[in-house]
Amino acid sequence: MSQTGARVGTAEEESRDTLGKILAALSDGQNFKMEAGAGAGKTHSLIDTLQHILRVRARYLPREGQRVACITYTNVARNEIIRRTDDSPHIFAETIHGFLWEALSPFRKSLLREVHKLPGWGSLLEDQDSLEDFSVSYDLGFRGIHENGIRLHHDDIPALAIKLFPNLKFRRLIADRFPIILVDAYQDTPSGLAEAMIGDASNSRSGSAYGFFGDHWQQIYDKTCGSIDDLPVKLIQKRANWRSSQAVVHLLNGMRPELPQAAVSNAHIGAVTVYHTNSWAGTRGTHSKKGQIPDDVLKATLRWTVEDAQRRQQRDGAERDSKVLMLTHSSIASELGFANINRSFRRNEDFVRKNDDVVAFLLDVIEPCCDYFDNKQYGPMFDLLKRSRPRMTRRSDKTAWTGLFGTINSARSTGTVGDVMDILLEQNCFALPQAVTNRHRKWELACKDLEDGEGIVEPRSLANYEKFRSVSYREVLALREYVEENTPFSTQHGVKGAEYPHVLAVFGGGWTQYNFPEMLANFTQRDSLSPGSRKRFEKSRNLFYVACSRAKEDLVLLFTTELSDDALETLKAWVGDANIRDIQYSPEGAPLSSRRGLSPDAAST
């Protein structure tokens, strides 16, 4: 037995044993759930299962044209499964929405009977006498009506599936095509969908055989199922941790003793260090940042903690860059220098995921084109501008392009987003996307109406554009670095499924749905919490677990809100008193050193 828990045999033997249990369940037509902690190799087991099915395909796919469906929750995961099964025609790997639309799309009449019952459709359909001859499409992802047809929203797809899957005939028709359906990261399945897909447990021949691979402790999104213990599924557990060092696995086991893991035989020893800011004597934040140290102190503390942790962990003298995980995009925006862009948009998805047309145009077209021009890569530049054959009949044509990019680059260095946009809108070398020019035109009209005293109410997109134009363009450059993952920063939500050698996870305020100090303080009494408190506890616990389990070797936890004695005792039980550091500050608020352990009279270092 090691410090990370007991195990039977080697990790390789456990993987073979797990595969055997999965195949036995499929052979018996049983639904199963493979529950495994972070780093256990859930996707590896799923791939092993698919590859075995392909080797003996006639046993599992007896009819011509049948396929195994493999449901994922990201395009990256889908593409990885396709790659690792050699793009087999007998595997249908798709995202949850892609699979559900494949299942639903042949049943137009059934969809039309149900769609008016869904949220958002009442007002759209109130003037329609009948939908009998309407078509149904799902390609743009937003809700709408066009000539003799309706377009479904992303949210409509699982909602319609929940309506249709309880029908026994529907489930049998799906089973004829997909006798086996495997679900990766099952905990992210929309609430109610797994129950609908499995159907009546009393009828063992009511549909496909389902295999769910996942970990309900990694449920971090709203309106998802989490644990599916109430469903008729055979439980298969996997306990090895192929990812993390012994120290990180020891922490995870302290958090989750009911599913102990064992580090593989060649795992690093690693280190886990906790830094807290209880000794900060100045003012702390309020509201969503209640109890957090001020932003300027946080920046200084983060830099100091990175340097101190690297110094302590450089046992081999090598530089150890850490992945820094923060709770919100707002915190990262402040750290990386695009805070005003963050303030310009009500939803961070608009600029982080480039849902806003103007942001997408600047990041995906203008910025790469400036790089191409500077590097004299004119072919790719013209392709990106949709000008693969620009007219260069005179010397003045070349001069015009050179002058344009010279002006753009100058504005990028010293001007605002509005300065760059005005240059782009006024030039004649290439056309801008219609969505971008339409936004600007509507904004100009809105500004004119305000000057005329009409006082219109601005749509959100115009209000965003108004604020965005006044931001220094250098913030766009900083945003691009972050979006393209050229910085060490990520949100804790954004790294689920990823792994990094060295992780620094920052736990503080900024989002009222999460309270990490309270979660830690309540850990020993979690089973006695009220249902509402338990739900809030699990929300913070799951995100904390996801962040901690990304580390392969060394993990640093920095708490920027004050920790109670109970919270500190929980951390002490997990990592030991010697690995807890109390950051000491100067009278001016600069971090100076850290004191080991919890005792006030502990030796300062």
Q: In a nutshell, what does this entry contain?
A:
It contains 25 helices and 18 strands. With 605 residues, it is α/β, with parallel strands linked by helices. The strands form four sheets. Strands 14-13-15-16-12-17-18 form a seven-stranded mixed beta sheet, sandwiched between helices. Strands 3-2-7-8-1-9 form a six-stranded parallel beta sheet. Strands 4-6-5 form a three-stranded mixed beta sheet, covered by helices on one side.
Q: How would you characterize this protein structure?
A:
The structure is a single chain. By secondary structure, this protein is α/β, with parallel strands linked by helices. 44% of the residues lie in helices and 14% in strands. The strands form four sheets. Strands 14-13-15-16-12-17-18 form a seven-stranded mixed beta sheet, sandwiched between helices. The chain has a six-stranded parallel beta sheet with strand order 3-2-7-8-1-9. Helix 5 packs across helix 8, helix 18 (395-414) packs antiparallel against helix 19 (417-426) and helix 20 (434-451) crosses helix 21 (460-469). The longest helix is centred in the last third of the chain and has 20 residues, at 395-414. The two termini are 35 Å apart.
